[in-house]
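Troubleshooting: if your tokenizer reports a length mismatch, compare against these two reference records.
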Amino acid sequence: MPNTIVSHLASGCVAALLGAGATYVSLTRSIGEDSNPDVAAAEVPAEAAGNALQTLLFETTMDDVLGRVAMVREFERRPGTGGTPHRHPGSHTFGYVLEGTYEVQVDDGPLQRLQPGETFYEPPGALHAVSRNGSSTEAVRYLVFTVSDPTLPATVPE
């Protein structure tokens, strides 16, 4: 019973953070990030993010949770692009599709074609076998929320 309560609490926190991130992205897209000088988003070039434009929206070290680092990032992939298979050894990874179609496959699971409002999860060390834009004509945008062990590599190519 206590494990069930903890897992529900953790799931609720992740859902709240993903919802807050989606709201943030929607608001900054509609009013413009320059209108709020307190918001700083760091963009990573597409080449460094595996053919995806990556924007760091939030990052904090959770000192009361074994020093884990929580991050919320927005990704945008051009039509027809994708990443190579990889793993995130120390990260719980949660995703939320904002626009377009995102194709994802974790380990030997089924290939998922996710639409706006749909989510995915990768446990630490799982093979992210497929990560690509499911459209040859439209970009895809999605949020990624991670809780990571900073002593382990962020990404390991397969």
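Reference record two:
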Amino acid sequence: MSSLKVRDVMTSEVVYLPAETTIDEAARAMRERDIGDVVVTDGPTLAGVVTDRDIVLRAVAERRDTTSTSLAAIATRELVMIEQDASTDEAARVMRERAVRRLLVCDDDRQLVGIVSLGDLARAADPSSTLSDISEAAPNN
């Protein structure tokens, strides 16, 4: 069993984009910040999450116009959260049960404080694993 907490391995810099942001703008923001996800907002409310994979599967593969289609059209609306004090084992269990690769991390007041990814958990569990190596590697662009 791991004694690491989600707070120990999460990314605390969350990028928020309004729901009306176009897909191409979001993709550029992801590239510039070297991230794979953004949190979509509707005013002060969390409205969903969009990942690089969502852009490929829900926009590009469906031949949507990425210059006019908004994040609202492709966002995953069901937000799966975990508390920052949960164990990394618990985070892995939730990911497995919910079939997701990322979890939003909240504090005791249910305020968003970060995101934990499958890659984050892999690096924490076994820094020498293949998944960890891939997650740590610089983009090959």
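Descriptive notes for reference record two:
- The chain has six helices and six strands.
- The mean pLDDT is 90.
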